[in-house]
Amino acid sequence: MTPSDKLQNAYVSKSLFLRGLQCYKSLCLDRRRPELRDESLYAREELFERGKEVEAYAQRLFPNGVFIPFEEISLSEQITQTIGEIKKRTPTLYQPAFSYNNVFVKVDILNKGKKGFGIYEVKSATEIKDIYIDDVAVQYYVLKGTGLPVSNANLVYINNQYVRDGEMEVDKLFIIENITEAIEERQGFIEEEIKSMREVLKEDNIPDIDIGRHCHDPYDCDFIGFCWQHIHEDSVFELKGRGANGYELYKQGIIHLKDVPSELLSDKQTIQVEGALEKKDFINHKAVKEFLDSLWYPLCFLDFETFYIPIPPFDGTRPYQQIPYQYSLYCKDNENSELRHYEYLAETGIDPRKELIEKLLKEIQENACVVVYNKSFEIGVLKSLGGWFPEYKEKIDNIINNIIDLMSPFQRKDIYFYQMRGSYSIKAALPLLVPELSYENLEIKNGEMAMNAYFTMSKSQDPLEIEKIRKALLEYCKLDTFGMVKMVERMREF
Roughly how many angstroms between the first and final C-alpha of the chain, as a whole number? Predict the structure, then answer.
């Protein structure tokens, strides 16, 4: 290792420090082998955008601050600008930069009070997590180290009980919690961890740290693809539900499903393991018949698509509340009648809720059987709509009372295909039950992609892009409901 490499390894940013707290191996891979990182997902970019929006709203708690840029200038220039503003006695800074002991941090909001400066770390979360304490603690360590008179440190996070009514009330949207005492207690730990990380970074070898829960806690690591490459199909990590736990089995040296002691497995896991090892499917014909007998005509199949964001966008909404912007609906009056399809997808830039529920109520016949996949989600959406529009609550409640969950027989493993690998999602079940239908050829393949596509469409000014996304969204949601129609038909053949 060259002297310049050693100097580089002495430098620690806040993000690198937090990565090291999660895993020293990830720390070293990030520094030395960044090419092994998993591909950046579009969803992560959207998450970053949501975070920036939350931070912009939090800045209204301390208005008229000076922003220290970070994309256009170097780290040293950011620090120089920060020092300059502090010397000018600027009361509030957004994204000021500091360095001490070759540890670099940026603070979301720095505000000068009567007794000194306050650190305000902004989070999109609705509760305090341990990692947030360490996040602020390393900032406190650096700022105090520079000699800056820091009097308090705080977390600013989302109040999920806030209901928007007119203009956004940022003092109600956010909770500010003083965590000074907690982070002062962490200062010795922070200093020791910085020393330990530097020692690890000096070594030529990547630490030999095995996989574990830390790969996903507190964040999904972006080197999972590399570190988990020795875990193949039919591993203990595919076990779902209660019973044997993949991580506990792995600690005992058990990796493959064939090596799991049968007495550790629950009944559902036993079906999964036997299916995987013997390549066989399970169908409980009696239970399937009972499920089918619970359906009646008129028969409808319904699926919503929703978005949820930390900043409530419309009156009556809370942070992270599911807001429907699309649905697909198939209906059939009787066994021999024609299958009808209805759909709704909101135009961009509008509050879609009232238009959506009024259209849906016209299309679902009174006392129709309404089949959904994962009823807790659809019922939650409908209950919210009933709360927003009490004039329709009685009709909405009638729909809720007539909902049948198609997920149930798959969740109970009354129908189980070994290729489902323990999952009972419609994405796993549909292609196996109805092979001619698949999400693979669609541009949008799951709900998260649909939500992100809707955000992209909402921001776009390009008519061609908007039309392309609309078509993709309609195709995706339509497959969810048409898939349910065909699944029930296939189940009747059993």
Answer: 66
Answer yes or no: pTM beyond 0.85. yes
What CATH number matches the domain at 3-201, 3.90.320, 1.20.1070, 2.40.10, 3.40.50? 3.90.320
Cβ 150 vs Cβ 119: under 8 Å = yes
Q: How confident is the model at residue 39 (pLDDT cuts 50, 70, 90)?
A: confident
Chain-centre distance of CA 465, in angstroms?
A: 25
Cα 358 vs. chain centroid, distance in angstroms? 30
Burial class (CB in 10 A: 0-12, 13-18, 19+), 149: exposed
Spatial separation of the C-alpha atoms in residues 302 and 294, rounded to whole Å:
17
Closest CA to 170 of 65, 56, 323, 94: 56
CATH class of 281-494: alpha beta
Burial class for 239, CB neighbours closer than 10 Å (0-12, 13-18, 19+): buried
Rounded Cα distance between 59 and 170, Å, is 9
How many Cα atoms within 13 Å fall on the side-chain side of residue 425?
9
- Closest alpha carbon to 273 in 374, 407, 413: 413
pLDDT in tens, 219-245: 999 999 999 999 999 999 999 999 999
Assess contact for 432 and 417: CB atoms under 8 A. Answer: yes
